[in-house]
Write a structure and sequence with these properties.
The structure holds two protein chains of two kinds. Helices cover about 55% and strands about 5% of the residues of chain A. Chain A is an alpha+beta fold. Classes of the chains: A alpha+beta, B alpha+beta. At the A-B interface, β4, α3 and α4 of A face β4, α3 and α4 of B.
Amino acid sequence: MDHQQEEKVQLFGMWASPYVYKVKWALSIKGMEYEYVEEDLGNKSGQLLEHNPVHKKVPVLVYNGRPVAESDVIVQFIDDVWKGQGGRILPEDPHERAMARFWARFVPDKLSPPIWKWFTTAGGEEQEAAREAAVEHLRVLEAELNLGSNEFFGGDSVGLVDLSLGALAYVIPMYEEIIGARLITEEMFPSLYAWMGRFLAAPPVKDHLPPMEELKLRFRAIREYFLKNA
Amino acid sequence: MAGEKNVGLVLLDFWVSPFGQRCRIALAEKGLPYEYVEENIMAVKSDRLLRSNPVYKHIPVLLHDGRTITESLIILQHLDQVFPDTRPLLPADPYERAHARFWADYVDKKVYGSGSKMYTEPQMQTNIEMVDILKTLERELGEKEFFGGEHGFGFVDVALIPFTAWFESFDRYSFKKKSFDRYWGVKVAEVAPKLVSWAARCQERESVSNSLYSPEKVYDFAGMMRKDFGIE
C-alpha cells in the first residue's frame, strides 16, 4: 500500500458502544489519526445508512471513502491495511492466528449473552442461571487462555483477543457495582482479574475509554428499564 | 492416494453439516489431500472430537500436523495462510478481504440464524425474515458471476453454497402446515432468481458437486430434525 498518498479515515460511532471502542483501540495500536463522527442511534445519519445499509449499525470505518462494517471485520482490516505499522493485532503464526480468531468469536457468541442477561434480569432464579452460565464461560477462558508470563493475550502488547475481551474490563466492574454482586473475583479468576487492570492501563487503551460516570448512569437506566418491562 | 504429498490434514465432520461442507469444498478447491473422519454428532461424541474441540464440542474440526483449528470460516482462512501456493479463497486486497469477511459473517449470522429456526418454529414468521435475507444476498450478488467478483469463486461463495441445499427445505416446509396456508411460502426462484442461477453455477464446480448432498437427502434430514424437536 502506498502510504505516501493521503489517507482519509473516518469512524462512525456512538460514545457508549463497546464495539466502537474496539475499533478505536485498534486504530490507536496503529497510531492512526481519524475523523470521529458521533451518531445519534435514535436518529441515524444519512451517511451511516449509506455506509452500512445492511445492518445500519456502528461502528463503521470509512477508508478513503470506502466503508467497512462489523467490528471484527474492521479490526482485521486495520491490521491488513497498516501491516508493518504500529503494533501487530493478529499473531504471525498461522495456528496462533486461528486460535486468536476463535477466542475473538467466543466473546460475542458465548460470553457476552449471559453477562447481558445477568445484568438485565431482576434478582432470582433466572438471573442466577445467567450468572452461572457467565461464570462457566469465564472459567473456560481462565483455563484455556494461558497468559503464562505474558502481560496480554497478544503477548507483550494488546492483540485481537485482548481487544475482543477488552470492554468487559470496565463493563463487568460497572455491572457488579450496579447490581451489588460480583462476577469476577481475584480468587475465582486470578488470571483474568489481573489482565483486566493491565488492559485498562495499556497504552492504546488508557486514553481511549468512554466517560465512566455517564456510562454508569446509562447502564443504571438500562437495568431499570429491563426490570420494569420484564 | 499414490503420489500425493501427505500434508497432514484430517477433517472431523458430519455429512450434512453446511459448515463441514464449506471445509470440504475449500480443500477440494485447493487440491489438498486430507483424511475425512465422519463424526456421528447425533449420537455419542467421540473422545477425539471432545479432545480436539473441548469448548464447543462440535464439527468441523481441522487437524493439521496434530494441531486443531475449529470454526469453518477460521479453517478456510487458515488454509489460505498455510497453503499460499494453492488457489486462495480470500482476495489479496485488504478492502476486498474485509468485504468478503463481512458477507461471510452475514451468511453465518443471518442465513444460518434464520434457517435453523426452521427446526424449532412451525410458523411462517421466519419466512418473512428469510425473504429479506435472500433479497439482500440477491442485491449483493448483482450481475457478478460469483460473490467473489473479479477474484472468482471465493470465500463468500464457499460460505453460502452449502446452505442452498436447504432452499428446497425452506420451500417445502413453508407449505407444509395447513393452518398457515394463508401465508406465502418462500419460493426462492421468485424471490432471488440470480441467486438460484449462482447456485447452479457453483454446482458445476467439481469441488462443490462432490461435497454437497442432494436437496432430497437434506429435506429428509430436516424432517427428522423437526420430529426430534417435536414440530411434527
